[in-house]
Design a protein that fits this description.
The chain contains two helices and no strands. With 53 residues, it is mostly helical.
Length: 53
């Protein structure tokens, strides 16, 4: 819950020029499952964040 609130604060404080980086997941690393990052990326794209690459 603390982590979630930390992101919420960051997102509400950034008014201009903010870049959100979603790294690629790696299924070989249990701490970075690809599914988790793909879901996050897809959600952010769905709500209208502009993809820069």
């Amino acid at each position: 819950m603390y982590q979630k609130n930390a992101y919420r604060v960051l997102l509400t404080r950034a008014r201009q020029g903010m870049i959100v980086v979603v790294p690629e997941g790696n299924d070989k690393d249990q701490t970075r499952p690809r599914r988790y990052y793909d879901e996050t990326y897809n959600y952010l794209a769905k709500i209208g964040l502009k993809v820069l690459f």
